[in-house]
Design goal:
Layout (H helix, E strand, L loop, with lengths): L11 H45 L1 E3 L5 E3 L5 H15 L10 E7 L12 E10 L5 H7 L3 E10 L2
Antiparallel strand pairs: 1-2, 3-4, 4-5
Helix pairs in contact: 1-2
């Protein structure tokens, strides 16, 4: 004899899928959001390194004296950091300007710009959520990423 299923069981898989779908969507978008945030944090660290490197690079001018490439002006270092961020940060069109703090320590015998001195570049960036901005922003405070690089004038 053939078994017949109850007619009331039709569509149960659709109801179960409808119950699980919101959780699945939140999980997938959370994974994407975390991946983008992790990538942006890595790019912020790289931008800090690029800014510090731009600030410590020496060059020999025509008279044989040492001079900084780009004159090591704070705006040159900030521009280097912001240019790097604008090229590599995933923002989907939001502005990429970061706060850049430059500190020079005169550890060398000749002062701040002599070999032995240190240059510290601190970069702070307020990460804005990309995938579910309003939903996530209502649950959590915005993330402030920071990266610090200290390089020595040599």
């Amino acid at each position: 004899m053939k078994r017949r299923f109850f007619k009331g069981e039709r569509g149960t898989s659709l109801v179960e899928f409808a119950l699980v779908l919101p959780l699945l969507i939140i999980l997938v978008f959370g994974i994407i959001e975390f991946g983008v945030a992790f990538y942006n944090k890595a790019m912020l660290t790289n931008a800090s390194r690029e800014g510090a490197r731009a600030g410590i690079v020496f060059n020999v001018n025509g008279s044989g004296d040492w001079q900084f490439v780009g004159d090591a002006h704070p705006s040159y270092i900030s521009d280097t950091v912001n240019n790097y961020l604008s090229n590599y940060l995933i923002t989907f069109g939001s502005p990429t300007n970061a706060n850049v703090l430059i500190t020079r320590t005169p550890d060398g015998p000749g002062g701040v710009y002599s070999p032995g001195g240190h240059l510290r570049v601190d970069v702070t960036y307020a990460y804005t959520y990309l995938v579910l901005p309003n939903f996530v922003a209502s649950l959590m405070n915005p993330l402030n990423f920071t990266a610090t690089t200290v390089m020595r004038f040599e």
